[in-house]
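Hi everyone, sorry if this is the wrong subforum. Our group has a chain we'd like a structural model of before ordering constructs, and none of us has done structure prediction before. Sequence below.
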Amino acid sequence: MKLPLLTLLLALLLHSGASALQVIVWDRDLQTKLGYGELSGGKLNVQLVPDYTGAVVVLFARDGSEKNSYAGLQSRYDGVLRNGKLNLDTPDSADNVPFDRFLSTFKLGLSLQNAAQNVTLPGLKAAPDSKSEPKK
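Answer:
Right subforum, don't worry. Here is the predicted structure as tokens:
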């Protein structure tokens, strides 16, 4: 079940065409998207949810023009996200590697931002604006 989902996710990343290198951070079960980033000018601009703690899967996708770039970059890494800090499990290290240090091995910088968490569920009403007057 997870392999077809992973294949589909990678295919969608490759066909989006927004950037030469993209990254998506998912929870371990590939159910919740926890972060997204694109390469711009040698810097990977990534947004991560700030209040998640747990195991994650990090997926990288390159477009056709970047197939030979970033030698050694795998399409999938396991890792841990703790309060907006991402660490990856790499084959070369026994410990988790901070994401910025991992990217530096590919001569990439990191611009990290907290992603807004706007959750809406069907059937729930939005909270009233505290600035507006109550209805009479």
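For your construct planning: The longest helix spans residues 2-16. The mean pLDDT is 78.
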